[in-house]
Specification:
The protein is α+β, with helices and mostly antiparallel strands. It has seven helices and six strands, in the order αβαββααβαββαα. The protein starts with 7 loop residues before the first helix and ends with a helix. It comes from Dyella marensis.
Amino acid sequence: MKAKDMKAKDIMTPQPRCCSTDDTLEHAARIMLEEDVGEVPVVDAQRHLAGVITDRDIVVRCVANGERTDQSRVGQCMTAPAKTLQEDASLEEVANLMKGERIRRVPITDGSGEICGIVALADLERTDARSLKAEVSERVSTPH
């Protein structure tokens, strides 16, 4: 399938592990370690996205301020609201959001607003849309 015909659902990592706002940062970091990811979706009981927690969020908003990751809660330092797209978004839409917001990952939601996947820069690389990936990579890596 050509990149121009692909949708977010075709390249996303489906059903990512998630955490809640009440989970500890240590728990979120453990998910990152076990899944080898740098971002975990933060959801409510219905799996609707409340935000995302990144490894950078944990370091910059918690650790650097001397807070304890075993006591601090995800809701205290997550990025919210998170920028999302629906699963039928085109790869171009995904790339444009990444470039415009300077983000490396996009949570993907289904028709009912539940988290159903994540598209990362590496997912773009695995398609024939390498030029899109190069544009996104250059943009998100450029300092503000």
